[in-house]
Task: structure prediction
Amino acid sequence: MTDTTQTERTEARASVLSSALAALPRPALLLAVLIVLLCALVIAFGPVRALQATVNGFVAGSYTGLGAIGLTLVLGVLKLVNFAHGDLLVTGAYFTILFAWLGLPLPLAMLTAMLATAALALATEKIIWQPLRLAKAGSLQLFLSAIGLGLVLRFTVQFFAGSQVRTLGANVVTSIAIGPLRLGTLQALALVVGISAMVIVGLVLRFTSIGKEMRAFADNRALAEVSGIDTQHIINVTWIASGFLAALSGILYATAIGSFNPNFGITLLLSLFAATVLGGIGNPYGALVGGLVIGLSQEWSTLLFNARWKPAVGFALLILMLMFMPQGIFGRAKRRS
Amino acid sequence: MSADAILEVADAVKDFDGLRAVDGASFHVERGSITALIGPNGAGKTTMFDLLSGFARLNTGTIRFAGRSIGGMAPHRIARLGLVRTFQLTRVLAGMSVMDNMLLAAPSQPGEHLPSLILGPRRARAAEARSRADAQALLETFGLRDKARDYAGALSGGQRKLLEIARALMTQPSLVLLDEPMAGVNPTLGRAILDHIAALREQRGTTFLFVEHDMDVVMSRADRVIVMAQGRVISAGTPAQVRADPAVVEAYLGSASPETTA
Amino acid sequence: MSIDFWINVGVLAGIYGIFTLGLQLNAGFTGLLNFGQAGFMAIGAYTVGILVVDRGWSLWLALPAGIVLAVLAGLFVGIASLRLRSDHFAIATIAFAEIVRYTLQNAAFSGGNQGVLGFDAEWRAVSDWMLPWLATIGLGAYTQLPLFIVVWLAFVALLLMMKGLQATPWGRVLRGIREDEDATAALGKDVFAYKLQSLALAAALAAVAGFFVALNVTYLYPTVFDPTFTFFGYALLVLGGFASYGGVALGSVLFWTLLEGTRLIETSLSAGQQASLRFIIVGVFLLLISRLRPQGLLGNVNEMRVRP
Ligand SMILES: Nc1ncnc2c1ncn2[C@@H]1O[C@H](COP(=O)(O)OP(=O)(O)OP(=O)(O)O)[C@@H](O)[C@H]1O
Ligand SMILES: [Mg+2]
Result:
């Protein structure tokens, strides 16, 4: 037999900690923690290194946040853990390479790639997800289908593009100086585009009717259905948004990091999950904020540990969040169905 | 409070997201009685069952079962103490045979624990044979004998209800909580269930607490009735006392009178 | 040449059969979607490799040590994440496997991407002892045959053990949990303790599989234990049959025969493209089988949970 007294003690400790945390207004708590951390880093490492890491954190945060939106919407709206989502990011980046190779100027290639990835995401709904829903597939079936789709996407890319490291082809090695901070031109571009995109997405979700419906749907599907929202329409739009933003996120990643191979999506996926859980499942604003928190934590961690442990910070945050705050920073405890 | 209460609940409170489902409920259940828990929809009866069986945690208040405080105890521990429940929406183990559903409920089967299973396989087999006989007898009483080998998922709604009750009884409980045991069961079968409950009470002294909306059944079969409304216990006593209580009549106004609610 | 090739396919089928027995115990009989099995396999294999190479342990003592460590990892992962919702649990187990792989790739004790080498002398001694015997029946030319025999003996023994365990009251509790954990808890079963046992036992099976992987590749490096291999395990699980241990054997043999068989097809593709194609085939296969026959060849559709 297992030692039940010990497991119960663990449980008790976990619940004490999480209920103590739950008592505080969590967004405020989060902001306070981030500011305290930043101050501590400024004191410990000097303003230049701390701020440089913070800027890098915002870059990482923007692609993580944008990538996580699709994941959280699909999870909220369809109750589907889309393990193939990371590979949609990869698809977006490699579509860009493809369209640029076909002769489109780079910005146009990027836009076309986002549209193509959105179309691809919609196609997966029609070919895979809708039929599985109609067949009342169980969770193992859904998991395995998502994993299967991920393998197909990633290795189709690898089949045609190879597994070697690539770039988007914009070989700009110049950098901009903002005071003592240095930022690669491409990184700066990614930062500006990423932050603007986050703002635009936030506004669209907040003010357009489709944005509102999508949020209502992701938050409480039963309620939204009763109030007469066209289910299939929302689902389609969710997939289109998910694919489009995934491609954008993948392109930002490719731009900011510079070089990549077809495995970057699966590597990034856990960070995206971390952002999703952090923000509360089904909450797209939460995903944006969660992405920023993950990005900042990873970059700040490079001041403390070797940079190669960066992804591990994402994993660790994911596991800690799942254990102690599974409903996320903005989430509230869900009703049992 | 009665000296011979098997279950005592005092000032139980349970909140969900700001909604107070149980709001300071207090009552007791007498040992060996058949007690009905009634109340309009949303009164907090199922939530009360969740609290009693450990599936929901009290915000404040106490629950004592057979003299022990069980508030906050895990469901399986409460069940092992002899307090078992059924669910309002039946929960049979669909992918297992009817017989396996029953055998799973057998108490103290040494074969369920790896060390004793490996060290004493013969004891496990003996216990299994005894449980099988018990299960057969219970299935016989509940008219499910022919179904023993079928998957529980293949049973009709009413049969599932029966299986769930039989399975709860298989644990040899001292207190059984039945959440709407007759809902979805045809009246003849429903009466058979009630007869069986009455017989078990006579033979084994098992205590029953059941939620039921059919007032005829409640008034004719229960020794005592507890009435909940809006999370509180508003009345308790013999069927005659409860029926005469103006608070009860008032609680049912707006939905229906207690006589006609089905 | 071609016989050596098929012997090797048999070794893979046996190893992944052992690996997947654990997944079947978790997913097929407990309803636990464990996606971290490759992590447990890596822990088992690296423990063996490191103890033998760095600490001079005997290979045969290192094997149980590897199993114990994997079981401890299983208990740790379980205590940390078994109380989560099932989809969160699945994500947490993937994260665990990634952490394991990541650590092995970057830490000093595991040799990083250089890996661990030179732990299999004692096994080769046994293998060399077996070959003359095999030669007497005319099979002495096949150097991987001893491993094939040992792997399959272990696989069959473990398969029978798991089948036997599943038929006991203990196995019945697991199935109850798979069907409805609340209802099972309401009957007095400590659901958490059983899930923990299921996960720990699966981790032990993964460690045994890891031991044989180590003997097979003779050289441990992190990509051998890529979390993707857990998905291979699930692919052969659903091919053979959900909630069927016999199905694991059938599924593993079919899966590896089909997958490795594609190597024999002459194409003008580069090696890299062929490798990609094999993964694409696995992906398409997962999509098709989930849709067309989710219970697999030998699985029972009644035991396939269709609850949302
Ligand atoms: N998990 C939950 N989360 C939030 N609210 C809940 C939850 N369970 C119950 N409630 C609410 O608590 C109140 C009491 O519900 P409960 O199910 O206990 O009533 P009941 O007396 O069993 O009703 P019925 O006769 O319809 O079964 C209701 O308003 C219900 O909506
Ligand atoms: Mg109820």
Remarks:
- Chain C has twelve helices and two strands.
- The interface with chain B takes residues 168-170, 172-173, 175-176, 178-180, 182-191, 197, 243, 302-305 of chain C (CB under 8 Å).
